[in-house]
């Protein structure tokens, strides 16, 4: 049992956001929606203006989702500081989002760890760096835990909670509870892996999409249509394992595996493994232009966020009905 007393997750009233790029600003938007005071730091030019613009733009989706009753974001609660240390000292919890560079993250975490009271949990947003590596720079490694969100952070429910070799079980449990308090659907990973778990799942599919493109199996537009209209509708409602279980009909998982096992093994064996050389990068840039259909990234982000609200409402409603029907 840890001798450190961490604040109850639902009692937290202030949080330091270190790094306010797309992930950090998105986290800040959610924290503000939950009524938290945000102490922010980012060394980038015009960081405060960019963050405030992001929060203002993202806010309507949270209002539509019912995540906040405030029609306008409380920007007065987003306070930028002159240093990361000042933010870490001012807030009750620290949330780090700087570039996905292990050395940079380790140096920043060491700075935060050096000034923050031992009762402050340090949450790191990293898409794939194992937390044990991040802890090496800290004198209090037990309070460092990965809280990995998915883009856009302020809307997507899932977060992965990953402890390192020296993260205390109490801090892992705290991070899970804090994520739920924020309205997230957290999952706890039992072991560390490069890319954690969900990125490994999604990039297995990305690898196959790129392979199909390079092998000339289909156009970029049709590859994306295969996901949007063939796989995504089911995946809004259920994961891969339940999908496979239902594919077996009355026989369930055993039935589909006994009936189609050899074919499944052939299907999941890669035809080829693409490499991101310059020629492949150029081909993917062309593919992005094809699927974007002339619209800008900003236009697609606005479209995505507006319609994600509808998808998430449907998902929540369907899950609530499924719980009722299975009890």
Describe it for me?
The protein is 53% helix and 11% strand. It has 327 residues and is of the alpha/beta class. The chain folds into 2 domains: 11-188, Rossmann fold (3-Layer(aba) Sandwich); 198-237 and 275-322, no CATH class. Strand 5 (122-124), helix 5 and strand 6 form a beta-alpha-beta unit. It is globular, with a radius of gyration of 21 Å. The two termini are 36 Å apart.
Summarize, please.
It contains twelve helices and eight strands. It has helices at residues 22-33, 47-65, 84-90, 102-115, 131-135, 169-181, 198-214, 220-237, 240-247, 252-268, 278-292, 297-325; strands spanning 14-18, 37-41, 78-80, 93-96, 122-124, 144-149, 158-163, 185-188. The radius of gyration is 21 Å and the shape is globular.
């Amino acid at each position: 049992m840890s001798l450190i007393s961490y604040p109850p997750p639902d009692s937290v009233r202030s949080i330091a956001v270190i790094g306010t790029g797309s992930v950090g600003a998105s986290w800040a938007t959610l924290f503000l929606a939950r009524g938290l005071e945000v102490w922010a730091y980012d060394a980038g030019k015009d960081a405060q203006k960019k963050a405030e613009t992001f929060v203002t733009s993202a806010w309507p989706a949270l209002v539509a989702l019912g995540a906040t009753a405030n029609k306008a974001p409380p920007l007065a609660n987003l306070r930028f500081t002159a240093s990361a240390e000042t933010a870490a000292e001012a807030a009750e919890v620290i949330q780090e989002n700087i570039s996905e560079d292990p050395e940079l993250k380790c140096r920043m975490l060491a700075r935060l760890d050096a000034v923050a009271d031992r009762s402050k949990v340090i949450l790191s947003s990293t898409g794939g760096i194992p937390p044990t590596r991040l802890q090496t720079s800290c004198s209090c490694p037990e309070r460092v835990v990965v809280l990995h969100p998915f883009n856009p952070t302020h809307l997507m429910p899932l977060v992965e909670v990953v402890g390192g070799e020296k993260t205390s079980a109490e801090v892992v449990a705290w991070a899970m509870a804090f994520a739920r308090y924020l309205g997230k659907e957290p999952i706890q990973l039992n072991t560390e892996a490069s890319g954690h778990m969900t990125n490994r799942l999604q990039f297995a599919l990305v690898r196959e999409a790129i392979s199909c493109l390079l092998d000339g199996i289909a156009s970029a537009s049709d590859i994306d249509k295969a996901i949007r209209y063939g796989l995504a509708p089911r995946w809004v409602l259920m994961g891969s394992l339940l999908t496979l279980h239902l594919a077996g009909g009355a026989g369930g998982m055993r039935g589909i595996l006994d009936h189609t096992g050899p074919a499944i093994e052939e299907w999941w064996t890669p035809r080829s493994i693409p490499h991101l050389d310059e020629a492949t990068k150029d081909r993917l840039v062309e593919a992005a232009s094809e699927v974007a259909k002339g619209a800008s990234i900003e236009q697609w982000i606005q479209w995505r966020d507006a319609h994600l609200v509808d998808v998430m409402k449907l998902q929540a409603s369907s899950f609530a009905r499924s719980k009722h029907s299975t009890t």
